[in-house]
Amino acid sequence: MANEDNNSPIANGNGAAESGPQLTVQKVYIKDASFEAPGAPHIFQEQGQSRVELNLGQKAQQLGNNVYEIVLTVTVTCKIGEKTAYLSEVQQAGIFGLSGFDAQQLDMVIGTYCPHVLFPYARQAISSMIEQGGFPAFLMQPINFEQIHADNVRRRQQAA
After folding, report:
1. Domain that holds residue 89
2. Of the candidates 86, 79, 98, 92, which has an alpha carbon nearest to the alpha carbon of residue 22?
3. How far apart, in whole angstroms, are the C-alpha atoms of residue 76 and residue 55?
């Protein structure tokens, strides 16, 4: 019986080994985080319906040959009436090794896969800050990064 190694490079028809696209998560970390409750302690006495606004941002920077830093910024702002109850923001970052992708594939991986990796960490950080700030738990719903990326690609094509 032949010994199979599923992690070995794929051999092409002429016997030479080929490695396809490679993606590695090298590091996940919080680049910046902040929490503000500008109206505390009076805001805890406010009555009324709270309004929560969620904003997402993403930056990608090439650090070296096939190494990228991706930063997912998540900002949650809660208002009661016109008063800001809290503002919580985290810049969740990761260093990714990305090689063997063509330009379109690389753009797709940076715009979809990398934020999917970072999002659970950002969600946890935001949730913890809000609860530790004395406010009710806030559970962010899953984000469809594929749709966001597709919308961004469509906007770039229309602008060109």
Report:
1. 21-135
2. 98
3. 7
